[in-house]
Amino acid sequence: MILSKSEKSRINHMKSRSNRKLFYLAAGILFLIACEHEPQDFMPDDNNGNEPGTCDTINVSYKGSVYPIFENHCLSCHSGPNPDYGIDLTNYSDVAAIAQNGTLLGALKRLEGYYPMPKDQQPLNVCEIRTIEIWINDTTFEEIECDTSNLTFPGTVQPILQAKCFECHSGQNPEAGIDLSDYSQVATLAQNGALLGVIKHEPGYVPMPQNGSKLDSCSIAQIEKWVNDTSFNNPPGGDPCHPDTIYFEKDLLPVLQSSCALANCHDDITQEDGVQLTDYASVMATADVDPFDPEGSDLYEVLIETDPDKRMPPPPNNPLTQEQINMVYKWIAQGAQDLHCDEDCDTVNVTFGGTVWPMVQNSCFGCHSGGNPSGGIPLENHADLVAVAETGQLMGALNWEAGYANMPRNGNQWSVCDRRAVEIWIEEGMPNN
Ligand code: HEC
Ligand code: HEC
Ligand code: HEC
């Protein structure tokens, strides 16, 4: 970590100490000359009452010298969830960023072009400013640890945007019409290059945050990695996926398509009982869904019907699983909306039971189960899936390769991420884990 100085920086320190001797000598001479006229102009009052001579400029450290100055003069405004100007001085990477780009000293020394800090207060005393300056000169800032593993939108990128951009780019009337609290807008900017362009201050883009200091290099690296690693294939208009929310297209539609919207049932041709279950619009128009009231909605009622003649899907089809029935209930209880979200693609923790099977259950089981499975191919358990994976049919059908039937039939092609997960499971030897 940065606070412990390496041998190398101790050498730098010694070098700068001898430079400093020269400086004192020159300053002393200047002082004598200046004294004859207006001595108080040369050295502003020392707020601590320290004589300049008692200022310890030798043992300067971040924790012991610099941070305490922030605590005394700055943290009242520059910390907490909403720090002034997006600068959080309890966050080392923020400090490193303004130290490196000159803003920190510019503001403290009240140089032209910088906002004078601490705002609306006396300047820091000479010793304090000097301490910070020595620390900046002696520090090698590349030592900042930057974690670019396990990046997620809600966990990594959104907090940065929230701290640095929301102030102008969210709410009723966001700057430039850009609302960065809206995931789909972030995704669009990420894809067309503008997001990285503005934060990296690339030519052709307005540098962001506007009038603020550039993001620290770690934040930029994290956002860049997230942009490069994310497949933005999912339809725009979403948010990061919340585990408790049912997303119609992602979660529920595959079940309806594979178990209900079948030929001679509720597809767009047969529309049995006038009910069509092929997409959101047809479900809302024909399936008597009463948002927020599952018990008052036919779509849910027919699933839990005990009379086998009325239950859907009717025998010999398998009933939906309890999990799927619960999902329908929850979706209606949450308002039966057509919400979208963008999944973070987890290709690390792929298992049969946790990843592959739930997707097959929802997208395929309806047709590929029971006494007369579609295509004569049952997909009811691990062994069934292994059999069809070993022939190459599984990936051929999922990837919509020439020579294979496109699966899920009548449904949307699985996302790149979902197909990759199945592939990984196959590559790992198709364990039943
Ligand atoms: C009373 C609240 C307050 C205090 C105390 C305060 N700041 Fe600020 N700081 C602000 C605000 C607000 C801004 C945005 C510019 C403005 O409105 O003046 C800002 C801006 C800055 C900037 C950006 C300057 C620029 O020109 O880009 C830096 C750096 C900074 N503060 C550092 C500090 C440091 C270091 C301290 C303590 C020595 C400090 N601030 C104390 C409120 C404060
Ligand atoms: C202090 C307010 C403010 C902050 C903070 C801010 N912006 Fe902006 N942003 C603006 C304004 C104003 C414009 C319009 C600039 C123009 O057109 O000259 C803009 C424009 C943009 C644009 C379009 C620029 C282009 O070249 O097309 C993007 C993208 C953007 N901001 C992203 C961000 C990001 C990302 C952050 C946070 C890292 C951020 N902004 C922080 C005020 C802000
Ligand atoms: C709506 C019913 C339906 C759904 C849902 C469905 N299938 Fe099929 N599947 C069929 C039918 C029917 C066939 C027979 C081939 C044909 O006639 O197109 C078939 C054939 C297949 C084949 C053989 C393909 C070939 O060309 O060799 C595979 C593998 C397969 N399905 C896997 C899946 C998987 C995996 C899913 C879920 C992602 C799925 N199916 C969902 C109806 C369905």
Task: Walk me through this protein's architecture.
The protein has 433 residues and is mainly alpha-helical. The chain has 4 domains: 7-142, no CATH class; 153-230, no CATH class; 248-341, no CATH class; 345-427, no CATH class. It has helices at residues 7-35, 39-42, 62-73, 92-100, 103-108, 126-138, 153-164, 166-169, 183-192, 194-199, 217-229, 248-259, 280-286, 298-304, 322-333, 352-363, 382-390, 393-398, 416-427, and strands at 239-240, 341-342. The structure holds heme C (3 copies).
Quick structural overview:
The protein has 433 residues and is mostly helical.
Notable traits:
433 residues; mainly alpha; 4 domains; 45% helix; disordered N terminus; binds heme C
Topology readout:
Blueprint: H1 7-35, H2 39-42, H3 62-73, H4 92-100, H5 103-108, H6 126-138, H7 153-164, H8 166-169, H9 183-192, H10 194-199, H11 217-229, E1 239-240, H12 248-259, H13 280-286, H14 298-304, H15 322-333, E2 341-342, H16 352-363, H17 382-390, H18 393-398, H19 416-427
Helix pairs in contact: 3-6, 7-11, 12-15, 14-15, 16-19
